Amino acid sequence: SWAFLDARSESGIKSVPVTYQRSPIVLSIQDVLSPFEPSSFVEESTRKTITLRLNKEWDAAVDCFEACILHEAASRSEEFFGRPLGEEAVRAMYKPISKKTGDYPRNLRVKLNTAGAYAAHYWAADKTRLDPPGTLVGVALNVRVSLRALWIGDDAWGVVAECTDLQLAEQGSEECPF
Q1: Three-class SS of 123-170
Q2: Which tens digits make up the pLDDT trace of 13-35?
Q3: Can you tell me the distance from the alpha carbon of 15 to that of 143, in angstroms, rounded to the nearest whole number?
Q4: Which end of the chain is more exposed for a tag (fewer CB within 10 A), N or C?
Q5: How far apart are CA 51 and CA 5, in angstroms?
Q6: Which pLDDT band holds residue 12 (cuts at 50, 70, 90)?
Q7: Mean pLDDT over all residues of the chain?
Q8: Residue 10 pLDDT greater than 70, yes or no
Q9: Using an 8 Å Cβ cutoff, are 107 and 98 in contact?
Q10: d(CA 109, CA 99)
Q11: What is the C-alpha end-to-end distance of the chain, expressed in Å?
């Protein structure tokens, strides 16, 4: 029951907003860790990528989401890509937001805005606002991730996933559903 809104193009990249009940798809993910600092190829960029190490319980949901988004993109290939493509061609062009290797935890790679009107908000375990911490490496976090749109280029496409809120959580905290 997702809705794909009209595409917008900017700098050769098409953006197709994805909504559920007229809002972006928002995930609230508990007890994640970031094994690395947020980073960007452009050092002074305020839009960085953060890797979130997910608990095993998210494996099936992420696999299902990615399978569904691949199916939708293939069935709407003329609308999204401007030409008919089979599921294998669509899959070959897809840049996944997650990676699962063997028995290791799944990593979810999302964007993190560090400044401006869309900067991510940081929260303490008691739900009060915080300044961004000095480091995110190894910190237990609860996060909100918005799956806003599909980005589509000439030979690649993927999901626009943004971390909008990060709560610094105490290990084992189960009282706050964030």
Answers
A1: ECCCCCEECCCCCCECCCEEEEEEEEEEEECCCCEEEEEEEEEEEECC
A2: 999 999 999 998 999 999 999 99
A3: 24
A4: N
A5: 28
A6: confident
A7: 92
A8: yes
A9: yes
A10: 8
A11: 25
Structure token pair of residue 93: 């062009």
Structure-block tokens of residue 66: 């990615």
pLDDT, tens digit (0-9, with 9 covering 90-100), for 67-106: 999 999 999 999 999 999 999 999 999 999 999 999 999 9
Distant-in-sequence, close-in-space partners of 147: CB < 8 Å, separation ≥ 6:
18, 24, 25, 26, 27, 65, 159, 160, 161
Cα 100 from Cα 106, distance rounded (Å):
4
- Helix (H/G/I), strand (E/B), else coil: 89: helix
Pairing of strands 157-168, 94-95: parallel
Nearest to 121 by CA among 177, 159, 178, 170: 178
DSSP secondary-structure letter at 12? T
Helices within 34-111 (DSSP H only): 59-75, 77-81, 87-93
Residues constituting the chain: 178
Structure tokens at 178: 């964030």
Q: What is the pLDDT of residues 115-174, one digit of tens each?
A: 999 999 999 999 999 999 999 999 999 999 999 999 999 999 999 999 999 999 854 444
